[in-house]
Amino acid sequence: MSVFSHSEFDGHERVVFxxxxxxxxxxxxxxxxTRLGCGLGGCRMFPYAGDAEAxxxxxxxxxxxxxxxxxxxLPQGGGKxxxxxxxxxxxTPALIRAMGRFVDSLGGAYVxxxxxxxxxxxxxxxxxxxxxxxxxADAASIAAGRTGDPSPSTALGTFIGIAAAVxxxxxxxxxxxxxVAIQGVGNVGYRLARHLHEAGAQLWVTDLHAPSxxxxxxxxxxxxxxMDAIHALEVDVFAPCALGAVLNAQSIPQIRAPVIxxxxxxxxxxxADGQRxxxxxxxxxxxxxxxxxxxIDIHHERIGYDASAVEAHLARIGDTLTAIFERAxxxxxxxxxxxxxxxxxxxxx
Length: 349
Ligand code: NAD
Known about the structure:
This protein is α/β, with parallel strands linked by helices. The chain has two domains: 14-62 and 76-136, Rossmann fold; 151-347, NAD(P)-binding Rossmann-like Domain (Rossmann fold), CATH 3.40.50. It contains 13 helices and eleven strands. Strands 8-7-6-9-10-11 form a six-stranded parallel beta sheet, with helices on both faces. A five-stranded mixed beta sheet has the order 1-2-4-3-5, with helices on both faces. β7 (202-206), α8 and β8 form a beta-alpha-beta unit. α6 (151-170) packs parallel to α12, α11 runs antiparallel to α12 (307-331) and α12 packs across α13 (335-347). The protein is globular and about 55 Å long. The protein binds nicotinamide-adenine-dinucleotide. The site of nicotinamide-adenine-dinucleotide has 23 residues, from α6 and α7.
């Protein structure tokens, strides 16, 4: 297993492996760039098939965080950590504490937050051993009713991004009557549905979890749709808010919504799918730009939460997307390619 010649290696500043014999922790922290500030990113716990798979994930995800932070206008870089293990079976307080000590050993080059397989309770436990944590509400936030869950900000940022994309592609400022298909009405998708409903949009929803669909139907008058049909509806916006790789060689020719804008991570199955979307005349809001509300929220929790400052920051997601769309149109390039170039101009110079 190589690191420097790994296909996902991109000049990462640090890739640190750690084994804690007492707790059984096996983890990797990758810091891609600290050029703009500490490398902030979630800690993913997953039953990886092996070290190589875990290394690939941490290299790829930490790099992605540099791009996301740069375009979100944050004074921070990209980092990520992975714990090898099944969160349901292998997670113990001793293991999470050992992870906190591991994070601390990097002296602030990496700041840990929650990701799949870890939650606020785990970060709180790590925080007993390191102050380099994000995604925790401070005492003032808790008193104000916040939990540290970034989903509300992710949903609001996505709503703002959808409005910007609709304005650009369809010339519409008023969202009343806008037809939106939402794939996944979980933490983010449900809150996004509420924003859209309040703005007068008409909704179609699907989810693996039937009660989530029923809730959106009863609260927002949404129409329930089969899981394999949601992407092909004749609507104005397709909003993926569930899983990755939904934009692929099979699905793209079936998409009839002119705008694709949702919160899910890694929506493109391959980089070639960005070009495919362009060829089909579909406007794609790059996922890591439109779903940056969560990382923006975490940043504001760290510097002292001011709700109006957070709202102003989230509003910039719309401006950034509009700048990406305009440049993509002028240069006839996929929006994801333009977003990457704009991010690199910020964090590599
Ligand atoms: P979640 O688990 O709360 O919601 C996802 C929903 O999708 C669930 O209700 C699940 O049942 C449903 N789902 C899973 N597979 C599906 C399928 N094949 N078809 C339809 N529905 C399906 O997660 P979330 O926090 O709402 O995150 C949603 C997406 O947004 C994820 O891709 C996540 O990585 C991304 N994201 C979330 C945040 C955040 O702040 N929570 C921030 C950035 C990005």
